User: What shape does this take?
Amino acid sequence: MMNVLIVHESMFGNTREIAAAIAAGLRRGRPEDDRSVRLVHVDDAPVTIADDVDLLLVGGPTHAFGMTRPETRQDATTKGATSSREGLREWIASLTPRADLPVVTFDTRVHVRMLPGSAARSAAKALRHKGFERAEQGETFWVEGTPGPVVTGEVERAERWGAELAARVSHGVS
Ligand SMILES: Cc1cc2nc3c(=O)[nH]c(=O)nc-3n(C[C@H](O)[C@H](O)[C@H](O)COP(=O)(O)O)c2cc1C
Assistant: This one.
């Protein structure tokens, strides 16, 4: 049985929507009461990943070309976002490393402006630096603007990506 933990950060709800779609894709074809895919907000995420977790997914919004910082989260709250205690950056710094664990990151970003940098890339780098040797950058999902919404079709793409990841883990390739 494959267990997946999805840890997400989201200030306006867009990354949460994407994370939920990825979870739905991972759960596709599984029984209604299946508990093998867990979705948690970064504020509630464990600092030690349980031994029975086979795949860790980590996703958050891109702020100032990378992961959020206290100042960028503050900036977002002045624009109407819900504040969180910490972001992916602080959570990753607090983690107990697991070198063998497959980890894939994702993020949300704005498509219209051609801005460089992504939280998925920064998170994968920070995770490898922390000792998660198998951490890799996954997908970016696009939002229309800072508060969202998610660009049309991206929720469906996230669900498909989740289903692909499930196939990958169950075949033991990851
Ligand atoms: C302070 C701040 C900085 C941002 N910087 C970037 C950026 O560098 N590149 C980008 O594509 N989007 C940037 N954005 C837009 C966010 O990526 C967008 O708000 C986010 O994807 C929404 O996800 P959420 O609803 O999960 O918070 C920024 C937003 C805020 C509030």
The chain has a mean pLDDT of 94. The radius of gyration is 15 Å. Residues 10-15, 61-65, 72, 75-76, 79, 108-110, 115, 117, 143, 146, 148 surround flavin mononucleotide (CB under 6 Å).
